[in-house]
């Protein structure tokens, strides 16, 4: 029994070694010399070797062992028509082996029939399960068949044991080889194909070209392409979005390629496309079709339904598939990118069928694709109105807030200029200032008087910025707001920002109600915007929002000097004028202004009214004020709009001005709330005790004037006494 077992082991070793060595030799030697001969080497040599084992060495090679041989080769090789030839060689070799050993006995034909039956049963099993599961089923079936044959013909148990051991060895080999071959295939695919997009790598493209050459194909179209501003996509949206864009691009291109065409990725967003063609074939239409496939429609690669518009630059040529042709296409791509991107350019120049570099999106500069994408994404639901234009000022992107602001839908705005909302009343010098800054690459802040589609006028306060690319202005973007109905972030203070309209002046008298004589005039600025009158509230609101209120104040003061040159000022009558604390604190500039003023009117007392609602921006420096008073003793200080501020009383006590002007709101408060008159009366008595004179503003009726007189407030200003006017009056008529 021991010697028999050793014999079975040796037979198993011999048969298994034949299978393993034959296949390994075929792969290591035959495949390298002549790949097509490798399967034939295995299909013929293995069955022939088993026949020699049985005929010469009297190895009991049964139908089950030949079945296991068939199953092993079936699993390790592709199921092609060549397997049909292997069935023939296997059955023929087994028939020869059986006749060699047993002659023409009936059991020989039964054995051959059994092998044919096993092959017929094994083939569908291995088709269904190509892994170790199929091999296990096939081996079990072969061993079972050998066992039945042994029981029926009393041939001996040896062949069944050898079949079992050979099946185990073959199964182990198949398992190892399957895993190894799978690893080799995956490694080869990874080397030949880009793992992200599935496109060929540089090595894969070389292999593809070599395969073409073996088939005699060497000519075609070579396209180099590059995704425009791809680095910006990665930096802005992240590499995950960038990867999605690359996959989508390759998918779009592949959908338009034939099976024999190829696309390769060399790294980043650089691709090469090769299309085998016959010499003389026109490639313009083909390349344009690929470009349109890559750029038409947005790339849905962002969450929330947000899309990106992608531009693609392509350079191409036709010729032999070699390095020289590739270099020509690469240079054409470089020229396409320098020509504005998102275009197709042939190596020899623009072909007849290829348009110059045009944007895919109509009326959109190719250089603005990157900004168009982010503007659409960021501004879609923004509260503030935003607009993006090209270098010619045509609107590319306008969010819904902007459309609502200007009173037009976005379809009307698209392709038009923001000047579609122009009212025609903004002075020309405003636009000159705007374009002088923007055309030199500087931002511009300012205001425009516009008109909506329904005819309503509105003040636009705009912050405009040039968009530059490689030192060239390619567009402009802006944040705009309605002056009176919105809150905006403060803009950066810039020296060039100023009021580009004119400033006229009117004078409203301040009366002593007891004598009905004029004691002073308040100089009131009346700004003009072209021919349009602008309220002081609008003027100063614009100045505050654009942060040029200090310059606006000085513009007013300087224009007042010009106006006062035309006025013969009444003797003994004061001049009241509003100023910002910042202007009053600029002692150097204020000295210059006062010097000019007193050269015109040396005997006029000038009363500076500190605007209460601006006072909180900067507290008055009393030391500077006292220095000015020493140099110009005829100047006085007034606290304006008393009662409208949060710290009026504290400021009144700290500053101790010469005058206090009650805010006009006190008139209605005292009328509707009589108990508040006690407060006014007490404040007036305290002020008089401190030498401070009190003026009541906003008096429009006789009853209001009488009420203030009863409270001890005899200095009045308001429409009841006189409207502001160009001329000065001496007394109440």
From TrEMBL:
A GO biological process held by the record: regulation of DNA-templated transcription
Entry protein name: EAL domain-containing protein
Superkingdom of the organism of origin: Bacteria
Annotated InterPro entries: Cyclic-di-GMP_PDE-like, EAL_dom, EAL_sf, GGDEF_dom, Nucleotide_cyclase, PAS, PAS-like_dom_sf, PAS_fold
Species of origin: Alicyclobacillus acidoterrestris (strain ATCC 49025 / DSM 3922 / CIP 106132 / NCIMB 13137 / GD3B)
Pfam families associated with the record: EAL, GGDEF, PAS
Gene3D superfamilies linked: 3.30.70.270, EAL domain, PAS domain
Listed CDD domains: EAL, GGDEF, PAS
SMART domains linked to this entry: EAL (SM00052), GGDEF (SM00267)
One Gene Ontology term of the molecular function aspect: cyclic-guanylate-specific phosphodiesterase activity
């Amino acid at each position: 029994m021991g010697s028999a077992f050793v014999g079975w082991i040796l037979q198993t070793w011999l048969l298994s070694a034949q299978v393993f060595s034959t296949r390994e030799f075929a792969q290591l030697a035959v495949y390298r010399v002549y790949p097509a001969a490798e399967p034939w080497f295995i299909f013929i040599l293995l069955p022939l070797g088993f026949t020699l084992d049985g005929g010469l060495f009297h190895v009991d090679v049964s139908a089950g062992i030949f079945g296991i041989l068939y199953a092993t080769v079936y699993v390790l090789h592709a199921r092609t028509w060549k397997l049909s030839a292997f069935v023939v060689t296997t059955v023929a070799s087994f028939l020869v082996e059986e006749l060699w050993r047993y002659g023409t006995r009936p059991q020989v034909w039964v054995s051959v029939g059994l092998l044919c039956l096993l092959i017929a049963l094994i083939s569908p099993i291995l088709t269904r399960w190509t892994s170790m599961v199929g091999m296990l089923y096939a081996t079990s079936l072969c061993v079972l068949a050998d066992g039945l044959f042994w029981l029926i013909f009393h041939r001996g148990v040896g062949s069944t044991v050898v079949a079992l051991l050979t099946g185990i060895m073959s199964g182990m080999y198949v398992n190892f080889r399957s895993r190894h071959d799978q690893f080799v295939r995956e490694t080869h695919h990874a080397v030949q194909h880009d793992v992200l997009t599935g496109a060929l790598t540089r090595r894969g493209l070389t292999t593809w070209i070599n395969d073409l050459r073996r088939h005699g194909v060497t000519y075609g179209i070579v396209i180099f392409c590059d995704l425009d501003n791809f680095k910006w996509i990665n930096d802005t949206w992240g590499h995950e979005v960038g990867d999605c864009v690359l996959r989508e691009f390759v998918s779009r291109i592949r959908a338009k390629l034939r099976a024999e065409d190829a696309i390769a990725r060399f790294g980043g967003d650089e691709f090469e496309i090769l299309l085998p063609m016959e010499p003389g074939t026109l490639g313009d239409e083909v390349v344009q079709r690929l470009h349109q496939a890559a750029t038409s429609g947005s790339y849905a690669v962002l969450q929330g339904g947000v899309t990106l518009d992608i531009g693609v630059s392509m350079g191409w040529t036709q010729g032999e598939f070699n390095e020289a042709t590739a270099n020509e296409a690469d240079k054409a791509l470089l020229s396409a990118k320098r020509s504005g991107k998102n275009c197709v350019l042939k190596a020899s120049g623009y072909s007849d069928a290829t348009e110059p570099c045009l944007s895919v999106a109509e009326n959109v500069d190719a250089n603005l694709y990157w900004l168009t994408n982010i503007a659409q994404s960021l501004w879609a639901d923004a509260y503030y109105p935003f607009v993006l234009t090209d270098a010619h000022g045509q609107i590319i992107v306008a969010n819904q807030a902007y459309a609502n602001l200007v009173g037009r839908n976005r379809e009307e705005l698209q392709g038009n200029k923001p000047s579609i909302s122009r009212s025609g009343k903004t002075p020309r010098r405003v636009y000159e200032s705007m374009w002088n800054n923007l055309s030199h690459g500087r931002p511009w802040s300012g205001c425009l008087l516009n008109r909506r589609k329904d005819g309503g006028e509105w003040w636009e306060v705009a912050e405009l910025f040039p968009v530059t690319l490689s030192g060239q202005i390619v567009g402009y973007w802006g944040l705009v707001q309605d002056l009176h109905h919105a809150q905006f972030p403060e803009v950066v203070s810039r020296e060039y920002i100023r009021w580009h309209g004119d400033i006229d002046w009117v004078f409203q008298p301040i009366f002593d109600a007891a004598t009905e004589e004029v004691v002073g005039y308040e100089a009131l600025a009346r700004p003009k915007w072209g021919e349009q009158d602008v309220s002081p509230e609008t003027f100063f609101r614009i100045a505050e929002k654009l942060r040029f209120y200090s310059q606006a104040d000085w513009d007013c003061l300087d224009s007042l000097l010009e106006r006062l040159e035309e006025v013969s000022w009444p003797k003994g009558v004061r001049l009241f004028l509003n100023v910002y604390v910042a202007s009053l604190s600029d002692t150097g500039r204020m000295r210059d202004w006062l010097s000019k003023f007193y050269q015109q009117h040396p005997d006029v007392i000038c009363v500076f009214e500190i605007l209460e609602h601006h006072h909180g921006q900067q507290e008055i420096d009393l030391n500077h004020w006292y220095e000015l008073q020493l140099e110009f003793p005829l100047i006085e200080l007034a606290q304006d709009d008393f009662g409208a501020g949060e710290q009026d009383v504290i400021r009144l006590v700290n500053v101790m001005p010469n005058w206090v002007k009650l805010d006009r709101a006190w008139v209605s408060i005292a009328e509707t709330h009589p108990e508040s008159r006690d407060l006014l009366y007490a404040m007036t008595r305290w002020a008089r005790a401190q030498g401070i004179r009190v003026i009541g503003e906003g008096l429009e009726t006789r009853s209001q004037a009488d009420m203030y007189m009863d409270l001890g407030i005899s200095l009045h200003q308001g429409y009841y006494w006189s409207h502001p006017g160009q001329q000065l009056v001496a007394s109440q008529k």
